[in-house]
Amino acid sequence: MISVLRNPTYAKLFSAQIIALLGTGLLTVALGLLAFDIAAGDAGVIMGVAMSIKMIAYVAVAPITTALLARLPRKPVLIGADLIRAAVAAVLTSAPAHRSPR
């Protein structure tokens, strides 16, 4: 099973997938912490809406975007998408928390 990692192309793709999954997991945790920071009691509702938007993007927006970007070179498109995602994560982490008095 480990012998497939000797193929350099497969090893690169596999490591990229692992990094992407780690990034997705960390972003989900950060979103949960941000939801709790913004609306402690209603954090579950905020997370539900955020995850619903995420799933709608996966199911509805991704195929349309794929069709629109099919003729562009893949590597720059993927790098650009990663940079946009990183920028969104940076904005979310740097946004000041607006806590309501309790």
UniProtKB/TrEMBL annotation:
Keywords: Cell membrane, Membrane, Transmembrane, Transmembrane helix, Transport
SUPFAM superfamilies linked: MFS general substrate transporter
Signal peptide positions (record): none
Transmembrane segments: 12-39, 45-70
Superkingdom of this protein's organism: Bacteria
Keyword match Phosphoprotein: no
InterPro entries: MFS_trans_sf (IPR036259)
Protein name as annotated: MFS family permease
